[in-house]
Design a protein that fits this description.
two-stranded antiparallel sheet; Rossmann fold; alpha/beta; 5-stranded parallel sheet; globular
């Protein structure tokens, strides 16, 4: 599958997952849609260091990792004044599709949510959404992140998470 999105050729993606096999799978999917600049981190701590040194355009983040989980990583990243790039777009890519986890990810400030296993097309669609329909960042009480999307309860199933603009 080849993406028709020319912006993908220059997009820099950081894949954060503790499983080497999963990082390779995601990297192959990204290459398949035309992305050429992919870096990897085996845990959230390494990812924070990499982002501070050379920020990517988008982070693809796993939920369950040693040291810091995906939501813990997000709480650090979405801390303006503490983290240098609090508006970096993040796609949560996880095997955890329970409704409470989806809501936790949204509350942590993720931009997009994908459930494993993922297709190249679904990944491309989420990246296109980030590139072409970016949501403004807002501060609502303790929350800082992209304007939240809400989940349609009637459309929820573990395999199909549907987020709509609020």
């Amino acid at each position: 599958m080849k993406s028709q999105d020319a912006a993908f050729e220059t997009l820099k993606i950081l894949v954060v997952d503790d499983e080497l096999h999963m990082r390779k799978v995601v990297k192959a999917l990204l290459y398949a849609i035309g992305i050429r600049h992919v870096s990897e981190a085996q845990d959230a701590c390494a990812a924070l260091d990499l982002i501070a040194q050379q920020p990517p355009d988008v982070v693809v983040l796993d939920w369950e990792m040693p040291y810091l989980s995906g939501p813990e990583f997000m709480r650090i990243v979405r801390a303006p004044g503490i983290f240098p790039y609090p508006q970096i777009p993040v796609v949560m890519l996880t095997g955890h599709g329970e409704k409470f986890r989806v809501m936790e990810a949204i509350d942590a400030g993720i931009n997009e949510f994908l459930l494993k296993p993922v297709s190249a097309q679904n990944l491309a669609d989420r990246l296109k959404s980030i590139l072409h329909k970016p949501r403004p960042f807002v501060r609502e009480g303790a929350y800082f992140g992209p304007l939240r999307r809400v989940m349609k309860a009637q459309d929820y199933s573990p395999q199909s998470v549907v987020l709509v603009d609020a």
